[in-house]
Amino acid sequence: MSYQILSAQTVIDYLTTLPAMQALFSDFAALTVEEIGDGNVNFVYRIKDNNSGQSVILKQAVPYLRCVGESFPLSRHRMNIEIMALETAKKYSPAHVPNIYYSSTEQSVVIMQDLADHAILRGQLIQGTVFPNFANHISTYMADTLFGTSDLHMTSEDKKQCVVKFTNTDLCKLSEDFVFTHPFEDNANNNYNPKLPQTAIDKVQKNGAVKVAVSQMRHKFMNNAQALIHGDLHTGSIMTNQTETYVIDPEFAFYGPMGFDVGAVIGNLYIAYFSHAYLSHASQDSIDYRAWLLDTIEQIWTQFSDKFTTRWLEHETQSEQLQWQYDNGIDDLKVYINSYLSDLFADTIGFAACKMMRRVLGIAKVADFADITDLDARANIETNIINMATHMVVNRSKFNTIDELNALAKETNTLEKITG
Amino acid sequence: MSYQILSAQTVIDYLTTLPAMQALFSDFAALTVEEIGDGNVNFVYRIKDNNSGQSVILKQAVPYLRCVGESFPLSRHRMNIEIMALETAKKYSPAHVPNIYYSSTEQSVVIMQDLADHAILRGQLIQGTVFPNFANHISTYMADTLFGTSDLHMTSEDKKQCVVKFTNTDLCKLSEDFVFTHPFEDNANNNYNPKLPQTAIDKVQKNGAVKVAVSQMRHKFMNNAQALIHGDLHTGSIMTNQTETYVIDPEFAFYGPMGFDVGAVIGNLYIAYFSHAYLSHASQDSIDYRAWLLDTIEQIWTQFSDKFTTRWLEHETQSEQLQWQYDNGIDDLKVYINSYLSDLFADTIGFAACKMMRRVLGIAKVADFADITDLDARANIETNIINMATHMVVNRSKFNTIDELNALAKETNTLEKITG
Questions:
Q1: Would you say residue A3 lies in a domain?
Q2: Which of the listed residues A210, A229, B164, B373 has the most CB atoms within 10 Å of its CB?
Q3: What is the mean pLDDT of each run of 10 residues along chain A (420 residues)?
């Protein structure tokens, strides 16, 4: 069947043609369809059997950016990437990736587990929900996928074939432009809070040290094929409840620098932290929540680096490579692992900073602060984010511990009421 | 015509079928064929019209490593890479790449300009020939090709397609194993001068700082798709005479770190330098020649970085990018260029060091020292090379100028007689 754009009316007829769906649903007449996509890029439907309660999510890519329309063409190839990236992430970190029931590159369709009992993390962070297991889960996901898909784990041949397979020209270009370029120049595509002072904008766009540092991060993003990264791992790509954490929407996946994923998580948690400092910042609840956010950031990096190290040492002891097989060889390997993680930490800080700044200055905002209607208060948050991020990107190699980064956040946060 | 291995007997019949050769040679009966390959990897023939003097070189890849035979399969894909890399280098640096008259991926054949008036640089260095224009030529070639094929010059889309096109799995694996792995471990593939002290070998293979540094360089080689590099740019891949310099044999080309090419040139010149310190080292000729070698190294880096900077600034002033378009923006860009070249200098030193060590400890030797029959003298040269290279790779980020690196060479060289 040649490619056809589905609709709420035609989805069920399409499902009836698929053996995988025949096995899942006993009665197609009992199915209902609900369109649930946020409507930006793709079409997303929930299909549910109201008798059994069984439901699935169907996602279809159209050959343009949905929120703009056919005037903004975007290759359906992104769905091939998303399908392959979901399958790869599922292989390495099964607990944190939804089950995939069916996929078709011809129809640009993937049908997967309905995470009906989970919600997008960003919205839950805005509401102030605590997730005690989140740091553990997301650090596992990142250690599993980033170590697993790198040269540290794969054969040289397999990895190179994956680099080719995951070449994602169109969506990388979007990131290069909208994450690393437009926000850092006087570009008509940008979108500023009218109350954001020009001095804050200039601090990013006309500041030599920041410009050079961001150019270095952009070049690294474009050149460093370190692992299969998710490529868009902000808190809007994560679904959580109190017991589980899932990573979704890997259409930006490609072989890039690991720190871009780790930095996306951490940078977006700092955005939540600065935003919460405004939201009823004097209340004990808000003080506690900000403390939980910073503690989560600390736990994510600490646990990630521990798990990454463990996987590496396990892999090395099972390998037949001669490289570290001599007296004290494993001690030397540990020095290498530490230097590797030290570089990755600097990358993480640099990429986190770019993602923080782009949310303030670029076209794509995040609800954490953009939904705040008091524009002066919002400008205050945005200025804090810019102040922290500019310092981070320029000095990214000078931080020795995640505690130092958290200390910078507290110090930068003019709204911070936490003491001690 | 399906793929057929040519021979000295069948080459001329093959040429008669090619319109490009009909245009070049008026009388096929006047042609003579000479096999001139060194016999390691491919077959190479010189075909000459003895009346007109016109001649060409025909190179054909066979589906195995020629010097071993069919028991060592090696995909003919390497000739597709060589053809594409020759064409690309010719586009960016026409004066330093031979003309290509004809190529066929089906036959794994390329027919190109006969550089009959030129000789392989390594042999000429061993003989002590001075090439006053070499630093100028090779620095132009490297600035042209490395800048031209990078993200600094190409569009993001075109560059990513080139990364895919130049994926060179088999030959990269050879470099990963024979340049970055085996020489640095107690591997049965290695080949040591029996007079080389075990302490010198252990200084590389059981030295934590060296092991970590080499692992970092290997990882960078495997992950950093910075530009289309030649991939094997030692002095055996360069043909020179007093007026011209040509780069040949780019079958190892892929998108990798620029410093691997610059380091290959410089590292092999240091090998020549240490080797010449033995060869009649007390004579004024030898002293002068070593001074020329060090001066050439200095000129190569200085001119390369100047030319690279010039190309970058030219490109930027012709571009419509907004990135550096603000007051003092070009000054900030210059800071970025300097930081870029500073990183590239560290890479260059690190890769040069790896290539120096691998020639001493790995299976593939170079005639500069390996043809010296006095094994004690040879071991002395090899020890000097190891002493310099181990210091270089560990401290690669600490050198500020190429003069500092030359000073290290003189200081390390126990055979050095140059003063002042």
A1: no
A2: A229
A3: 92 95 91 84 93 94 87 92 98 98 96 96 96 98 98 98 97 96 96 97 97 98 98 98 97 98 98 86 85 98 98 94 93 98 98 98 95 94 97 98 98 66
Are residues B295 and B232 part of one domain? yes
Please report whether residue A419 resides in a domain. Answer: no
Q: Is residue B6 part of a domain?
A: no
Judge if A102 and A131 occupy the same domain.
no
Is the CB of A336 less than 8 angstroms away from the CB of B160? no
Residues B109 and B91 in one domain: yes
Confirm if A278 and A381 have CB atoms less than 8 A apart. yes
Q: Tell me whether residues A322 and B211 touch, CB distance under 8 A.
A: no
Q: B218, B393 in Cβ contact below 8 A?
A: no
Task: Answer whether B157 sits within 8 Å of A169, measured CB to CB.
Answer: yes
Kindly state the tokens that stand for B270. 């240091």
| Mean pLDDT for back-to-back runs of 10 residues, chain B (420 residues) | 92 95 91 84 93 94 87 92 98 98 96 96 96 98 98 98 97 96 96 97 97 98 98 98 97 98 98 86 85 98 98 94 93 98 98 98 95 94 97 98 98 66
CATH number at residue B62: 3.30.200.20
Asked whether residue A140 falls in the same domain as residue A156, the answer is yes
pLDDT of amino acid B79: 96
Q: What is the CATH classification number for the domain harbouring B209? A: 3.90.1200.10
Q: Which of B113, B135, B167 is the last residue of a domain?
A: B113
d(C-alpha A14, C-alpha B199), whole Å? 71
One domain for residues A267 and A397: yes
In a domain, B420, yes or no: no
8 Å CB contact of B336 and A164: no
Are A342 and A254 found together in one domain? yes
Chain A residues within an 8 Å CB radius of B180: none
Instruction: Please tell me which of the candidates B156, B157, B167 has its beta carbon nearest to residue A160.
Output: B167
Residues of B with CB under 8 A from a CB of A: 151, 156-157, 159-161, 163-164, 167, 169, 172-173, 176, 181, 184-187, 205-206, 208, 211-212, 215-216, 219, 222-226, 322-329, 331-332, 335-336, 339-340
Domain shared by B159 and B295, yes or no: yes
pLDDT at site B420? 33
Partners of residue A327 in chain B, C-beta under 8 Å: 206
**Is the entire prediction scored with pTM above 0.90?**
yes
Task: Say if residue A70 is in the same domain as residue A192.
Answer: no
Query: Are B225 and A223 within 8 A, CB to CB?
Result: yes
Compute the nearest-CA separation of B319 from chain A (Å): 14
Tokens 């290279």 identify what position? B389
**Sequence-ordered alpha helix ranges (H) in A168-257:** 169-178, 198-205, 208-223
Last residue of a domain, one of A113, A146, A174: A113
What radius of gyration, in Å, describes the C-alpha atoms of chain B? 22
Of A157, A212, A324, the CB nearest to B339: A212
Q: Which residues of B are less than 8 Å from A181 in CB distance?
A: 323
Q: Write the residue in B215, B325, B326 that is nearest to A336 by C-beta.
A: B215
∠ Cα B228 B231 B237 (to 5°): 120
| A319: containing domain | 119-412
Angle at A101 between CA A97 and CA A103, to 5 degrees: 95
Nearest to A175 by CA among A138, A220, A145, A144: A220
Count up the domains in chain A and report the number: 2
Best of A211, A338, A361 to substitute, by most chain B Cβ atoms within 10 angstroms, is: A211
- Chain B's closest residue to A343, CA to CA, is B216
Say if residues A125 and A235 touch (Cβ distance below 8 Å).
yes
- Tell me the nearest-neighbour CA distance from A206 into chain B, angstroms: 7
